[in-house]
Amino acid sequence: MGDPVQLKDEGNKHFQAGDIDKAIECYSSAIKVHLHSIDVDAADIKALYRRCQALEKLGKLDMAFKDVQRCATLEPKNRTFLETLRRLGAEIQAKLKTTFSTDSRVQNMFDILLDEEMGKENKEKAANNLIVLAREDAGAERIFQNNGVPLLLNLIATGKPEMILAAVRTLSGMCTGHKARAMAILHMVGVDKLCSVMAIDDEEIALAACNLFQCINDSLTGGDKREYGKEEALVLDASKDLKTILLSLLEMVASKKVSGHGRDQALNLLSKNVPRKIRKEKDNSRTLFTIDHGLKKILKVCGQVPELPDQLPLTENTQLIASVLLNKLYDDLTCDPERANFKDICEEYIKSKIDPKDMDKTIHAVNTISGLLQGPFDVGNALVGHQGIMEMMVALCGSERDVDQMVAVEALIHSSSKMSRASFFITNGVSLLKDIYKKTKNERIKIRALVGLCKLGSAGGDDYSLRQFAEGSTEKLAKQCRKWLCNPQIDTKTRKWAIEGLAYLTNDADVKDDFVEDELALKAMFELAKSKDKTILYAVACTLINCTNSYDKKEIIPELVQLAKFSKQHVPEQHPKDKKDFIEQRVKRLLKAGVTSALAVMVKADNSILTEQTKEMLARVFLALSENPRDRGTIVAEGGGKALIPLALEGTEAGKVKASHALAKIASISNPEIAFPGERVYEVIRPLVSLLHTDRDGKQNYEALRGLTNLAGFSEKLRVKIVKESALPDIESYMFEQHDQLRQAATECMCNLVTCKEVQERFLQDGNDRLKLLVLLCGEDDEGLQTAAAGALAMLTAVQKKLCTKLTTVTLQWLEILQRLCLHHNPQIQHRGIVIVYNMLNSDDSELAKKLIESEMLEILSVIGKAEDSPKRQEALDAARTCLVKAMDLGLIKPFTNTS
Question: Do the beta carbons of residue 179 and residue 238 sit within 8 Å?
Answer without folding.
Answer: yes
